């Protein structure tokens, strides 16, 4: 078996605005998805997923394009386990020229699905890395990130930014502006995450912001203002000024809220973190539900979140210096 792991991410700044060409700063976190592959002697894929939900499941498919496996799990799980893996393995076939290769694939992930922590990107990055290595090819992080981006682009019908996949492949903090992705120097960040147990509908949330932008000039200005916050955030990151980062994250959350992508549970967690003394807190990712990210070097925010109604899980996450990791 060849096994790779890849980290999830939080957005320190800039989600949604990045769709309209503003910069964004995501940051990889030590919460990982692991993907193991074993070459088969036919061209099928067999996917076994543990920990993506409480119940693991196995699905075997292959052959006809568009075949939907007959299996009783939620659509998001099925997509995570089949479409993303399917498309990732297509990239493996493309890179290696082994067009008919099949694999047994095992996925284990500690990253909640669809909650703004980049779960699908981590699975895709780890799957492409493990699949190519199993066939004797080791990809550089930039090529891996590009292949993983194409995978997400295909599965999400073109609605993908490079942020999650680049961040997951390379690790660390990253600056994304359009097609330009680069690594940033970052201090050790005291990241705390609160998860409401839910997930937002990324497509609907992105469409909501697009509509607001088209309808109101001040909404378009709000998106541009997010870009200004991001540029200030980059300076604070470079200076290692964690308190300033927190203040700017608070501002970014306010703007995201104005754009209609927060939710009651996200706002409740953000305020619980602020009341507990966090330097700052904001939603991460598409919003609508899912996760918030706060900065607090003490235990106060994690403790407060764990007692906050609507917060299902609160945990500390180190910045992941290392992106994709080759395990065996
Ligand atoms: O929820 P996530 O982690 O998939 O982030 C979505 C980020 C958006 O900016 C809303 C969309 C995008 O593709 O950049």
From TrEMBL:
UniProt-annotated binding residues for ATP: 112-122
The protein's role, per its UniProt record: Catalyzes the phosphorylation of (R)-mevalonate (MVA) to (R)-mevalonate 5-phosphate (MVAP). Functions in the mevalonate (MVA) pathway leading to isopentenyl diphosphate (IPP), a key precursor for the biosynthesis of isoprenoid compounds such as archaeal membrane lipids.
Localisation per UniProt entry: Cytoplasm
Residue span(s) of domain GHMP kinase N-terminal: 84-172
Catalytic activity field: (R)-mevalonate + ATP = (R)-5-phosphomevalonate + ADP + H(+)
GO process terms (BP): galactose metabolic process; isopentenyl diphosphate biosynthetic process, mevalonate pathway
Keywords: ATP-binding, Cytoplasm, Isoprene biosynthesis, Kinase, Lipid biosynthesis, Lipid metabolism, Magnesium, Nucleotide-binding, Transferase
Name under which the protein is recorded: Mevalonate kinase
PROSITE patterns: GHMP_KINASES_ATP
Protein family membership: Belongs to the GHMP kinase family. Mevalonate kinase subfamily.
Residues forming the catalytic site: 164
GO MF entry, a single one: galactokinase activity
NCBIfam families for the chain: mevalon_kin
Gene3D superfamilies attached to this UniProt entry: 3.30.230.10, GHMP kinase, C-terminal domain (3.30.70.890)
Gene Ontology cellular-component terms listed: cytosol
Documented EC number(s): 2.7.1.36
Pfam families: GHMP_kinases_C, GHMP_kinases_N
Domain GHMP kinase C-terminal: 235-301
Pathway as given in its UniProt record: Isoprenoid biosynthesis; isopentenyl diphosphate biosynthesis via mevalonate pathway; isopentenyl diphosphate from (R)-mevalonate: step 1/3
Domain of life from the UniProt record: Archaea
Keyword Methyltransferase: no
Quaternary structure and interacting proteins, as annotated: Homodimer.
Origin species: Natrialba hulunbeirensis JCM 10989
Cofactor(s) of this protein: Mg(2+)
